[in-house]
Amino acid sequence: MIEAFQNINKVFESKVRLGIMAVLMVNEDVDFNTLKELLSLTDGNLASHTRALEELGYVVCQKTFVGRKPKTSFQATSEGKKAFKAHIEALENFLKST
């Protein structure tokens, strides 16, 4: 049973990071405010978790202007998608083994 925990990614133990990646897996990109509303997070909470995922290379952040307003969007990287899929598979394997 210990082997089932081998591929569980500690990064995704946080429900916020798990939620961010889940949203980004089914959407090409998502803007900051949409993520904040979908996951019921504060600005600071979302910013710190997306920064951590960005530092790991799991997401990329794009900052643009729409008119005069700044817009921040996030997109999952291929590395992030691979890590997330491996994490989900590890959870499924763990559940099957119990």
CATH-derived topology: Arc Repressor Mutant, subunit A
For the record, the CATH class is Mainly Alpha
Structural class: alpha+beta
User: For the largest beta sheet, what order do the strands appear in spatially?
Assistant: 1-3-2
Q: Which homologous superfamily in CATH is the superfamily?
A: Winged helix-like DNA-binding domain superfamily/Winged helix DNA-binding domain
Count of beta strands: 3
| Mean residue pLDDT | 93
Share of β-strand residues = 15-25%
Poorly predicted runs are none
Set out the fold topology.
Layout: H1 15-26, E1 30-31, H2 32-39, H3 43-55, E2 59-66, E3 69-76, H4 78-97
Antiparallel strand pairs: 1-3, 2-3
Structure keywords:
98 residues, three-stranded antiparallel sheet, WH-like_DNA-bd_sf, WH_DNA-bd_dom, Winged helix DNA-binding domain-containing protein, WH_DNA-bd_sf
Can you describe this structure?
This protein is α+β, with helices and mostly antiparallel strands and about 100 residues long. It has one domain (about 1-95): Orthogonal Bundle (Arc Repressor Mutant, subunit A). It contains 4 helices and 3 strands. The chain has helices at about 15-25, 30-40, 45-55, 80-95; strands at about 30, 60-65, 70-75. A 3-stranded antiparallel sheet has the order 1-3-2. A hairpin with a 2-residue loop joins strand 2 (about 60-65) and strand 3 (about 70-75). The radius of gyration is 15 Å and the shape is elongated.
